[in-house]
Specification:
Elements (H helix, E strand, L loop, with lengths): L1 E3 L2 E11 L5 E12 L3 E4 L7 H10 L7 E5 L5 H4 L2 H8 L2 E4 L4 H5 L1 H7 L5 H4 L8 E2 L5 E5 L2 E7 L8 E5 L4 E3 L16 H13 L5 E3 L9 H25 L9 H9 L9 H8 L3
Parallel strand pairs: 4-5, 5-6, 6-7, 11-12
Antiparallel strand pairs: 1-2, 2-3, 3-4, 8-9, 9-10, 10-11
Helix pairs in contact: 7-8, 8-9
The structure holds zinc ion.
Zinc ion binds next to loops.
């Protein structure tokens, strides 16, 4: 989908296998920047290169022009096909240094953040070629640039991209969605990063990894307010339930999931990890 002449968003559907019987359908957006060369922001899950390359061909360009892949962070649906795309194109991989271990050693990520069906979502580890940092300006040629905004919280090295000339802000997974899976490393930092997005009035189009594009200022404000109130609601539920010592594994997580009216399959180590970041 064309957002601006040189900025496109491609939706990639995938499934998380929760158990042999239960599948959770999700999607992730890949951002394509058609500059002098082609830059991708994120790569979708394992095997997404076919869909990305087809989309590039439909737009009259070739996948061999991919020169750079920026990874907004290390989670499986963002890095899944990065190694394969690097192998096929020789592109450079850019990411924030705080994401290094989970991108370059996916076995460590799987152990520390065990997303169900992890190996179906990520092809393999990939080496970062250049680190990016807060405030850095990336130049794509054709008078197109983007500023890196470090947005910790969802993960330690999550980054957002701000395209000043096009007035487009890409927020990756930084905006929590109302009633969606609690899925972050640090609740306090997540709210701080959300505040940075809220007070930035200098964009007209807001993009994220898990929503359609937003261009209506009222809808954007509502999205951000709902994300904030969802995290505040989780904060209250966590503080009411996480007390003392658990007598049973994930006991506090179970009580909090129940209180929030979330489905029982969210009683799992990833959600527990997010809840504990409130304490
Ligand atoms: Zn993520």
């Amino acid at each position: 989908m064309k957002i601006k002449e040189n900025i496109h968003l491609l939706k990639i559907d995938f499934n998380i296998q929760l158990s042999p019987e239960k599948v959770l359908p999700r999607f992730v957006n890949v951002l394509l920047i058609f500059g002098e060369k082609i830059t991708l922001v994120d790569t979708g899950v394992k095997g997404s290169e076919e869909k990305i390359f087809s989309y590039i061909a439909e737009n009259g360009r070739s996948y061999s022009e991919i020169e750079t892949v920026i990874l907004s962070h290390s989670h499986p649906d963002h890095i899944g096909s990065a190694a394969r795309i690097k192998e096929l194109t020789g592109c450079k991989i850019l990411a924030h240094p705080a994401e290094k271990t989970w991108i370059e050693e996916i076995a460590v990520q799987e152990k520390e953040r065990p997303v169900p069906g992890f190996s179906n979502l990520v092809d393999r580890s990939v080496t970062i070629d250049e680190f990016i940092e807060n405030g850095q300006i990336l130049d794509f040629g054709n008078n197109q640039t983007a500023k890196i905004i470090h947005a910790p919280g969802h993960s330690a090295g999550s980054v957002n991209l701000y395209f000043r000339n096009e007035k487009v802000l890409f927020t990756a997974d930084s905006i929590p969605l109302k009633s969606d899976i609690p899925n972050y490393d640090n609740a306090h930092q997540l709210l701080v990063s959300l505040h940075v997005i809220e007070k930035n009035s200098d964009y007209e189009i807001l993009l994220s990894s898990w929503t359609p594009a937003f261009s209506d200022a009222h809808e954007i404000k509502k999205l951000l307010a709902e994300g904030r109130s969802w995290i505040e609601m989780i904060d209250k539920a966590v503080k009411a339930n996480y007390k003392g010592t658990e007598t049973e594994y994930l006991e506090f997580c179970r009580a909090t999931v129940h209180q929030l009216g979330l489905p029982p399959f969210l009683v799992n180590p990833i959600v527990d990890r997010s809840f504990r970041s409130h304490l």
